[in-house]
Design the sequence.
Protein backbone atom coordinates (compact mmCIF):
# COMPACT_ATOMS: atom_id res chain seq x y z
CA UNK A 1 0.00 0.00 0.00
CA UNK A 2 1.27 3.47 -0.87
CA UNK A 3 2.39 5.71 1.95
CA UNK A 4 -0.28 8.30 1.17
CA UNK A 5 -3.03 5.70 1.55
CA UNK A 6 -1.55 4.48 4.84
CA UNK A 7 -1.42 8.06 6.15
CA UNK A 8 -5.02 8.66 5.08
CA UNK A 9 -6.25 5.50 6.82
CA UNK A 10 -4.28 6.28 9.97
CA UNK A 11 -5.70 9.82 9.99
CA UNK A 12 -9.19 8.34 10.36
CA UNK A 13 -8.26 7.40 13.95
CA UNK A 14 -7.86 10.96 15.32
CA UNK A 15 -10.77 12.10 13.17
CA UNK A 16 -13.02 9.51 14.84
CA UNK A 17 -11.66 10.45 18.27
CA UNK A 18 -12.78 13.99 17.56
CA UNK A 19 -16.37 12.75 17.45
CA UNK A 20 -16.32 11.40 21.00
CA UNK A 21 -17.06 14.79 22.62
CA UNK A 22 -20.33 15.19 20.73
CA UNK A 23 -21.32 11.56 21.37
CA UNK A 24 -20.52 11.85 25.07
CA UNK A 25 -22.44 15.08 25.59
CA UNK A 26 -25.47 14.05 23.56
CA UNK A 27 -25.87 10.34 24.32
CA UNK A 28 -23.95 9.22 27.41
CA UNK A 29 -24.71 9.60 31.14
CA UNK A 30 -22.92 12.63 32.64
CA UNK A 31 -20.00 12.55 35.07
CA UNK A 32 -19.00 8.96 34.34
CA UNK A 33 -15.77 9.34 32.32
CA UNK A 34 -14.01 6.33 33.82
CA UNK A 35 -16.97 4.04 33.24
CA UNK A 36 -17.00 5.38 29.69
CA UNK A 37 -13.32 4.50 29.39
CA UNK A 38 -14.04 0.92 30.45
CA UNK A 39 -16.97 0.65 28.04
CA UNK A 40 -14.84 1.97 25.22
CA UNK A 41 -11.80 -0.21 25.75
CA UNK A 42 -12.70 -3.58 27.29
CA UNK A 43 -15.55 -4.79 25.02
CA UNK A 44 -13.65 -3.62 21.94
CA UNK A 45 -10.49 -5.37 23.12
CA UNK A 46 -12.27 -8.64 23.80
CA UNK A 47 -14.04 -8.49 20.42
CA UNK A 48 -10.84 -7.83 18.46
CA UNK A 49 -8.96 -10.53 20.35
CA UNK A 50 -11.74 -13.00 19.58
CA UNK A 51 -11.69 -12.06 15.89
CA UNK A 52 -7.91 -12.43 15.72
CA UNK A 53 -8.09 -15.75 17.61
CA UNK A 54 -4.59 -15.14 18.95
CA UNK A 55 -3.41 -14.65 22.53
CA UNK A 56 -0.05 -13.26 23.66
CA UNK A 57 2.75 -15.73 24.27
CA UNK A 58 5.76 -15.49 26.55
CA UNK A 59 7.04 -11.98 27.16
CA UNK A 60 4.23 -10.51 25.07
CA UNK A 61 1.89 -10.91 28.04
CA UNK A 62 3.73 -8.22 30.01
CA UNK A 63 4.59 -6.18 26.93
CA UNK A 64 0.93 -6.02 25.93
CA UNK A 65 0.03 -5.02 29.49
CA UNK A 66 2.61 -2.21 29.49
CA UNK A 67 1.47 -0.90 26.11
CA UNK A 68 -2.19 -1.20 27.11
CA UNK A 69 -1.59 0.83 30.26
CA UNK A 70 0.41 3.53 28.45
CA UNK A 71 -1.95 3.88 25.48
CA UNK A 72 -5.27 3.20 27.23
CA UNK A 73 -5.28 2.39 30.95
CA UNK A 74 -3.32 5.41 32.21
CA UNK A 75 -4.09 7.70 29.28
CA UNK A 76 -7.89 7.63 29.58
CA UNK A 77 -8.17 8.43 33.34
CA UNK A 78 -5.52 11.16 33.18
CA UNK A 79 -7.13 12.66 30.10
CA UNK A 80 -10.55 12.71 31.79
CA UNK A 81 -9.08 14.20 34.99
CA UNK A 82 -7.49 16.95 32.93
CA UNK A 83 -10.75 17.59 31.08
CA UNK A 84 -12.68 17.87 34.36
CA UNK A 85 -10.15 20.19 36.04
CA UNK A 86 -9.48 22.43 33.06
CA UNK A 87 -11.53 24.25 30.44
CA UNK A 88 -11.88 22.05 27.38
CA UNK A 89 -9.65 24.31 25.31
CA UNK A 90 -6.71 24.09 27.70
CA UNK A 91 -7.00 20.30 27.91
CA UNK A 92 -7.11 20.08 24.10
CA UNK A 93 -3.97 22.21 23.75
CA UNK A 94 -2.10 19.97 26.20
CA UNK A 95 -3.17 16.99 24.11
CA UNK A 96 -2.07 18.75 20.92
CA UNK A 97 1.40 19.11 22.43
CA UNK A 98 1.70 15.31 22.45
CA UNK A 99 3.68 15.19 19.18
CA UNK A 100 6.51 17.06 20.88
CA UNK A 101 6.82 14.24 23.43
CA UNK A 102 6.94 11.69 20.63
CA UNK A 103 9.56 13.68 18.69
CA UNK A 104 11.85 13.66 21.73
CA UNK A 105 11.20 10.05 22.76
CA UNK A 106 11.52 8.77 19.19
CA UNK A 107 14.94 10.40 18.93
CA UNK A 108 16.09 8.79 22.19
CA UNK A 109 14.51 5.34 21.82
CA UNK A 110 14.17 4.78 18.08
CA UNK A 111 16.92 6.95 16.68
CA UNK A 112 14.37 8.90 14.63
CA UNK A 113 16.03 12.28 14.29
CA UNK A 114 13.36 14.85 13.60
CA UNK A 115 14.13 17.59 11.11
CA UNK A 116 13.62 21.23 11.98
CA UNK A 117 10.62 21.21 9.66
CA UNK A 118 9.04 18.35 11.62
CA UNK A 119 9.55 20.10 14.96
CA UNK A 120 8.11 23.31 13.55
CA UNK A 121 5.10 21.38 12.24
CA UNK A 122 4.45 20.01 15.74
CA UNK A 123 4.76 23.45 17.36
CA UNK A 124 2.69 25.24 14.73
CA UNK A 125 0.04 22.51 14.88
CA UNK A 126 -0.33 22.97 18.64
CA UNK A 127 -0.49 26.75 18.14
CA UNK A 128 -3.24 26.37 15.53
CA UNK A 129 -5.24 24.13 17.86
CA UNK A 130 -4.88 26.72 20.63
CA UNK A 131 -6.44 29.33 18.33
CA UNK A 132 -9.40 27.01 17.77
CA UNK A 133 -10.13 25.92 21.33
CA UNK A 134 -8.76 28.49 23.79
CA UNK A 135 -11.00 31.26 25.11
CA UNK A 136 -10.31 34.41 27.09
CA UNK A 137 -12.04 32.83 30.10
CA UNK A 138 -9.64 29.88 30.21
CA UNK A 139 -8.14 29.30 33.65
CA UNK A 140 -5.32 27.00 34.71
CA UNK A 141 -5.48 24.40 37.46
CA UNK A 142 -2.24 22.79 38.63
CA UNK A 143 -3.68 19.28 39.04
CA UNK A 144 -5.43 19.49 35.67
CA UNK A 145 -2.30 20.72 33.89
CA UNK A 146 -0.13 17.99 35.44
CA UNK A 147 -2.70 15.33 34.51
CA UNK A 148 -2.90 16.66 30.96
CA UNK A 149 0.86 16.71 30.54
CA UNK A 150 1.26 13.19 31.93
CA UNK A 151 -1.58 11.88 29.76
CA UNK A 152 0.14 13.26 26.65
CA UNK A 153 3.45 11.80 27.80
CA UNK A 154 1.79 8.43 28.45
CA UNK A 155 0.27 8.25 24.99
CA UNK A 156 3.54 9.46 23.49
CA UNK A 157 5.52 6.78 25.31
CA UNK A 158 2.97 4.18 24.25
CA UNK A 159 3.28 5.23 20.62
CA UNK A 160 7.07 5.07 20.70
CA UNK A 161 7.22 1.73 22.54
CA UNK A 162 4.61 0.25 20.20
CA UNK A 163 6.98 1.14 17.37
CA UNK A 164 10.04 -0.02 19.31
CA UNK A 165 8.71 -3.47 20.18
CA UNK A 166 6.87 -4.08 16.91
CA UNK A 167 4.76 -7.24 16.93
CA UNK A 168 5.43 -10.96 17.37
CA UNK A 169 6.26 -12.80 14.19
CA UNK A 170 3.07 -13.61 12.29
CA UNK A 171 0.81 -11.48 14.51
CA UNK A 172 -1.12 -8.68 12.84
CA UNK A 173 -2.29 -5.32 14.17
CA UNK A 174 -5.78 -6.67 14.90
CA UNK A 175 -4.50 -8.96 17.65
CA UNK A 176 -2.10 -6.33 19.03
CA UNK A 177 -4.91 -3.81 19.25
CA UNK A 178 -7.17 -6.29 21.01
CA UNK A 179 -4.50 -7.16 23.56
CA UNK A 180 -3.82 -3.53 24.41
CA UNK A 181 -7.46 -2.49 24.66
CA UNK A 182 -8.23 -5.46 26.90
CA UNK A 183 -5.28 -4.73 29.20
CA UNK A 184 -6.13 -1.04 29.32
CA UNK A 185 -9.81 -1.66 30.05
CA UNK A 186 -8.98 -4.11 32.85
CA UNK A 187 -6.60 -1.55 34.37
CA UNK A 188 -9.33 1.13 34.47
CA UNK A 189 -12.00 -1.07 36.13
CA UNK A 190 -10.74 -0.80 39.75
CA UNK A 191 -10.06 2.92 39.32
CA UNK A 192 -13.59 3.48 38.01
CA UNK A 193 -15.12 1.41 40.83
CA UNK A 194 -13.17 3.34 43.46
CA UNK A 195 -13.85 6.82 42.06
CA UNK A 196 -17.32 6.49 40.50
CA UNK A 197 -18.90 3.58 42.31
CA UNK A 198 -21.49 1.28 40.74
CA UNK A 199 -22.20 1.55 37.01
CA UNK A 200 -25.05 3.89 36.04
CA UNK A 201 -28.37 2.79 34.59
CA UNK A 202 -28.26 2.87 30.79
CA UNK A 203 -31.02 3.84 28.38
CA UNK A 204 -31.29 3.34 24.63
CA UNK A 205 -29.28 6.47 23.82
CA UNK A 206 -26.47 5.37 26.10
CA UNK A 207 -26.29 1.93 24.48
CA UNK A 208 -26.14 3.60 21.06
CA UNK A 209 -23.39 5.96 22.20
CA UNK A 210 -21.30 3.27 23.85
CA UNK A 211 -21.78 1.00 20.85
CA UNK A 212 -20.46 3.73 18.54
CA UNK A 213 -17.50 4.44 20.81
CA UNK A 214 -16.65 0.77 21.24
CA UNK A 215 -16.79 -0.15 17.56
CA UNK A 216 -15.87 3.03 15.68
CA UNK A 217 -13.89 5.44 17.82
CA UNK A 218 -12.05 2.74 19.76
CA UNK A 219 -11.96 -0.69 18.07
CA UNK A 220 -11.54 0.41 14.46
CA UNK A 221 -9.78 3.68 15.32
CA UNK A 222 -7.08 2.11 17.48
CA UNK A 223 -6.60 -0.71 14.99
CA UNK A 224 -5.91 1.90 12.29
CA UNK A 225 -3.66 3.84 14.69
CA UNK A 226 -1.49 0.86 15.69
CA UNK A 227 -1.42 -0.37 12.11
CA UNK A 228 -0.14 3.06 11.10
CA UNK A 229 2.56 2.96 13.77
CA UNK A 230 3.79 -0.29 12.27
CA UNK A 231 4.01 1.13 8.74
CA UNK A 232 5.06 4.74 9.38
CA UNK A 233 7.48 6.50 11.68
CA UNK A 234 6.24 7.25 15.20
CA UNK A 235 6.69 10.97 14.55
CA UNK A 236 4.67 10.84 11.34
CA UNK A 237 1.77 9.10 13.08
CA UNK A 238 1.64 11.43 16.07
CA UNK A 239 1.66 14.53 13.86
CA UNK A 240 -1.85 13.48 12.82
CA UNK A 241 -3.06 14.11 16.39
CA UNK A 242 -4.30 17.71 15.85
CA UNK A 243 -6.98 16.32 13.54
CA UNK A 244 -8.89 15.22 16.66
CA UNK A 245 -9.65 18.67 18.17
CA UNK A 246 -10.19 20.08 14.67
CA UNK A 247 -12.80 17.40 13.99
CA UNK A 248 -14.45 18.12 17.33
CA UNK A 249 -14.72 21.81 16.40
CA UNK A 250 -16.21 21.03 12.99
CA UNK A 251 -18.77 18.61 14.48
CA UNK A 252 -19.64 21.16 17.14
CA UNK A 253 -20.34 23.70 14.40
CA UNK A 254 -22.16 21.35 12.01
CA UNK A 255 -24.17 19.21 14.45
CA UNK A 256 -24.41 21.13 17.71
CA UNK A 257 -24.85 24.66 16.40
CA UNK A 258 -21.62 26.01 17.90
CA UNK A 259 -20.33 29.12 16.14
CA UNK A 260 -16.81 29.37 14.72
CA UNK A 261 -15.12 32.78 14.88
CA UNK A 262 -12.69 34.08 12.23
CA UNK A 263 -9.80 33.43 14.64
CA UNK A 264 -10.91 29.82 15.04
CA UNK A 265 -11.14 29.36 11.27
CA UNK A 266 -7.62 30.74 10.84
CA UNK A 267 -6.41 28.42 13.61
CA UNK A 268 -8.01 25.44 11.88
CA UNK A 269 -6.24 26.34 8.63
CA UNK A 270 -2.91 26.70 10.44
CA UNK A 271 -3.25 23.41 12.32
CA UNK A 272 -4.33 21.50 9.22
CA UNK A 273 -1.54 23.05 7.17
CA UNK A 274 1.00 22.07 9.83
CA UNK A 275 -0.34 18.50 9.80
CA UNK A 276 0.08 18.26 6.03
CA UNK A 277 3.54 19.86 6.18
CA UNK A 278 4.59 17.38 8.85
CA UNK A 279 3.57 14.45 6.68
CA UNK A 280 5.44 15.85 3.69
CA UNK A 281 8.56 16.26 5.81
CA UNK A 282 8.26 12.72 7.15
CA UNK A 283 7.74 11.33 3.63
CA UNK A 284 11.22 12.47 2.64
CA UNK A 285 12.86 10.20 5.20
CA UNK A 286 13.54 6.52 4.42
CA UNK A 287 11.51 4.03 6.44
CA UNK A 288 13.00 1.08 8.30
CA UNK A 289 10.95 -1.87 9.39
CA UNK A 290 11.37 -4.52 12.05
CA UNK A 291 11.19 -8.16 11.04
CA UNK A 292 7.62 -8.34 12.32
CA UNK A 293 6.66 -5.33 10.22
CA UNK A 294 8.27 -6.79 7.10
CA UNK A 295 6.36 -9.99 7.71
CA UNK A 296 3.14 -8.01 8.08
CA UNK A 297 3.56 -6.57 4.59
CA UNK A 298 2.60 -10.02 3.36
CA UNK A 299 -0.42 -10.17 5.67
CA UNK A 300 -3.74 -8.68 4.73
CA UNK A 301 -4.97 -5.52 6.40
CA UNK A 302 -7.13 -7.49 8.77
CA UNK A 303 -6.69 -11.25 9.20
CA UNK A 304 -4.25 -13.63 7.61
CA UNK A 305 -5.48 -16.11 5.06
CA UNK A 306 -4.78 -18.89 7.53
CA UNK A 307 -6.90 -17.21 10.18
CA UNK A 308 -9.72 -16.83 7.71
CA UNK A 309 -9.57 -20.51 6.82
CA UNK A 310 -9.92 -21.34 10.50
Sequence:
Amino acid sequence: MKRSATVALTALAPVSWGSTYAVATELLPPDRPLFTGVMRALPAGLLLTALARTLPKGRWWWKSAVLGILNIGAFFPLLFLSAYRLPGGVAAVLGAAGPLFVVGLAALVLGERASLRTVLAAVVGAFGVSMVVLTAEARLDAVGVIAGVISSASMGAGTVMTKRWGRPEGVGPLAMTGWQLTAGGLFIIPVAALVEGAPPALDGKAFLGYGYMMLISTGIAYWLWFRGIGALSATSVTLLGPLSPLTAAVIGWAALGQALSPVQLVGMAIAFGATVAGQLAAARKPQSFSSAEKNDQNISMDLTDEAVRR
Summary: Residues 253 and 259 are 6 Å apart (CA to CA). The radius of gyration is 19 Å.
